[in-house]
Amino acid sequence: NAGVTQTPKFRILKIGQSMTLQCTQDMNHNYMYWYRQDPGMGLKLIYYSVGAGITDKGEVPNGYNVSRSTTEDFPLRLELAAPSQTSVYFCASSYSRAEQFFGPGTRLTVL
Amino acid sequence: AQKITQTQPGMFVQEKEAVTLDCTYDTSDPSYGLFWYKQPSSGEMIFLIYQGSYDQQNATEGRYSLNFQKARKSANLVISASQLGDSAMYFCAMREAGNQFYFGTGTSLTVIP
Prior knowledge:
By secondary structure, chain A is mainly β. Helix content of chain A is 0%, strand content 50%. Chain A has no helices and 11 strands.
């Protein structure tokens, strides 16, 4: 099992550009999550999904969109990137509402 | 109000000693979960331990135990017999009903040889 994989590992965007962060899990987990971690801070939940076709907002959803067309994939879309979106993005999945398995993260810089 | 509060930005512990990392939480949901994660300098998030709000016993996982005091809304992590590899950031987190997750700002633990 690869677990939770994220691509890309690093990315630099210019202000106003858009991009999609990819997240895939091969554990057949129903629950998937996107977090951002700003320097020296804890994680903040952006969006989550409890199954294919179902998504919901977390604490900091503005500027992001998600979709969940399959159990395995949960891409995060950034539209009109802003410097405030410079962060490390983590995707996670879980079978139940307990332990989450995290991907390695994507380090995004918006200049 | 902060959902998760970790008041210790940095902690030091002697190798082989025990250390307690503090966490308090704020929720009005009767059903919630509490988690601790470790983040080494390499950046990955490693799950350590979980406590459900209805669990009667304190959770334990190897050298990790969670001191759950429901009335005080605290969920402190105890690491016994500290090892050099325990040096990392430690995050306390809470899942509320509705699947919202909240993380604290973390405690940096340094284990001294």
